[in-house]
């Protein structure tokens, strides 16, 4: 496959993945599909939204920092101004920025899974319910024991909600990391050998 065609496949894939990443991060602000927790959190009534959601790894890292490189990478696959050795060389730098963004999204997603969600819970059956992170110190072991998930009283189903979204972000960030890594190699070959396009300019 020509380096230009490879760039096109990578760019289109990154568009889709960046879109999924942004959507998942935004949805994560609304546990139980309600806006009230985001509103209470913004009014400084105590944490109601998981910290890793507010780090915006899906929007900034897996979204914007991968979307911008995808645009340039896509341009290197066309017959436009970037479809030359210089454009392919620049795509290496853009892909490296995508790697950084994907790593940021990957890290925040992994932390979100490991630390668990913010929820209303009771430490013991006789204690007063309070907001916090009941799984914060168990190193993610709660993930394999669904019986523990019932500790969270509110928002309803918040453990499954966060688990699904952070797991999706983790997979998406991993794919973005691989694709941007491939584009760095592809860009190097394109810089040396050209893009196989209709015209070649330095």
From TrEMBL:
Signal peptide: none annotated. Keywords: Membrane, Transmembrane, Transmembrane helix. GO terms for cellular component: membrane. It is a multi-pass membrane protein. The chain crosses the membrane at residues 12-30, 55-75, 87-107, 163-182. It is found in: Membrane. It comes from the Eukaryota. Pfam families: L6_membrane. Its main location: membrane. Belongs to the L6 tetraspanin family. This is Transmembrane 4 L6 family member 4-like isoform X1. It comes from Salvelinus namaycush. The gene is LOC120049286.
């Amino acid at each position: 496959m020509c380096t230009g065609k490879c760039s096109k496949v990578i760019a289109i894939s990154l568009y889709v993945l960046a879109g999924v990443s942004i959507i998942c991060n935004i949805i994560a602000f609304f546990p139980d599909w309600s806006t009230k927790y985001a509103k209470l959190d913004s009014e400084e009534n105590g944490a109601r939204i998981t910290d890793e959601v507010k780090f915006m790894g899906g929007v900034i890292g897996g979204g914007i920092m991968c979307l911008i490189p995808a645009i340039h990478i896509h341009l290197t696959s066309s017959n436009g101004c970037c479809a030359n050795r210089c454009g392919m060389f620049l795509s290496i730098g853009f892909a490296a920025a995508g790697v950084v963004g994907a790593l940021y999204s990957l890290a925040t997603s992994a932390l979100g899974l490991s630390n668990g969600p913010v929820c209303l819970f009771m430490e013991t059956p006789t204690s007063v319910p309070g907001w916090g992170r009941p799984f914060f110190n168990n190193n993610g072991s709660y993930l394999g024991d669904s019986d523990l998930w019932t500790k969270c009283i509110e928002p309803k189903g918040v453990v499954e909600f966060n688990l699904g979204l952070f797991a999706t972000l983790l997979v998406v960030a991993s794919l973005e990391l691989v694709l941007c890594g491939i584009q760095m190699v592809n860009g190097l070959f394109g810089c040396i050998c050209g893009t196989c396009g209709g015209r070649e300019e330095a």
